[in-house]
Amino acid sequence: MPDYTDILTETHGRVGLVRLNRPKALNALRANLLAELLDALKAYDADDAIGAMVITGNEKAFSAGADIKEMADATAVDLMDWGLSDGWHRISTIRKPIIAAVSGFALGGGCELALLCDLIVASETAQFGQPEITIGVIPGAGGTQRLTRILGKALAMEMVLNNRFLKADEALAHGLVNRVVPVERYLDEALQLAGEIAARAPVAVRLGKEAINSAYELSLAEGLAAEERAFYLLFSTEDQKEGMRAFVEKCAPEWKGR
Q1: Long-range own/partner contacts, residues 174-178 (CB < 8 A, 24 or more apart)
Q2: Is 257 labeled as catalytic in the residue annotation?
Q3: 246, 251, 254, 257 alpha-carbon torsion, rounded to 10°
Q4: What is the SS3 assignment for 27?
Q5: Catalytic pick among 66, 100, 201, 204
Q6: Which of 36, 63, 154, 251 has the most CB atoms within 10 Å of its CB?
Q7: How far apart are CA 67 and CA 130, in angstroms?
């Protein structure tokens, strides 16, 4: 990995970890951080030794949102020229699973980044919010759309229009996060979950992620057809033969990723 300035990277077995590393700014998401994050995720996605990824911040903040100092005087054309929306979209095209390990604040763009991930492990101190309304704008990186699909219209309206925060237990109750654990365990829990997924059949994991995400875009009939194609495709892989052989012979499979 290159020498990044706004993130730190490390590997834990088959898991690639990215730490947002602007603690004095509560991990505010300036353009350089997002560019480095995308670069690291793409590198992990292309690495056969990595099966899943974790994005985290620190105990105080996953990310408190966009760097307002960077954006305050921007024009609409500036925002288009910076290509921020393209960067967010490219994160959503990462093929391998991404888990957000969230403690403390996940606000604005930080909440939207967590929503881009495939699973979320939260500490008991986690708080999710979209406070853009307090500075005269609205979420611009998927918050209005992903929150509404996950939480429903009523709660999404309250978060976007009236700056309501969701605490960790509320986020769990509403299906926004997968699990809530004590703050001293949240990152270990996320790494363990990522490691378990990374130990599965790699092609099946990627196609499973793709099929689930397609449910947001396709009709039920189209989604079922896409799932069926992916299911049939897996029968052309060595891993399918290995997995079923191991099941019949009652032994552990050895995945090849092909």
Answers
A1: 174/150, 175/150, 175/151, 176/120, 176/128, 176/150, 176/151, 177/102, 177/120, 177/121, 177/122, 177/126, 178/119, 178/120, 178/121
A2: no
A3: 40
A4: coil
A5: 66
A6: 63
A7: 14
Q: What is the mean pLDDT of residues 61-72?
A: 81
Backbone CA torsion sign across 68, 69, 71, 74 = positive
DSSP codes of every residue in 124-193: TT-EEE-GGGGGT----SSHHHHHHHHH-HHHHHHHHHH---EEHHHHHHTTS-SEEE-GGGHHHHHHHH
- What residue ranges define each of the domains in the chain, with the CATH number in brackets? 7-198 (3.90.226.10), 202-249 (1.10.12.10)
Please give the order of strands across the beta sheet that includes 127-129: 61-63, 105-107, 127-129, 166-167
Cα gap 250→231, rounded to integer Å: 23
Count Cα atoms within 13 angstroms, Cβ side, for 49: 6
Alpha-carbon distance of 108 to 129, in angstroms, equals 6
Which position among 51, 104, 108, 109 bears the catalytic label?
109
User: Could you read off the pLDDT of 177-216 as tens digits, one per residue?
Assistant: 999 999 999 999 999 999 999 999 999 999 999 999 999 8
Catalytic residue among 36, 132, 189, 227: 132
Note if 109 is an active site residue.
Answer: yes
Q: In the numeric block, which tokens belong to residue 103? A: 């403690």
**Active site includes 66?**
yes
Q: How distant, in Å, are the alpha carbons of 5, 34, 46, 227, 243 from that of 255?
A: 36, 33, 17, 22, 8
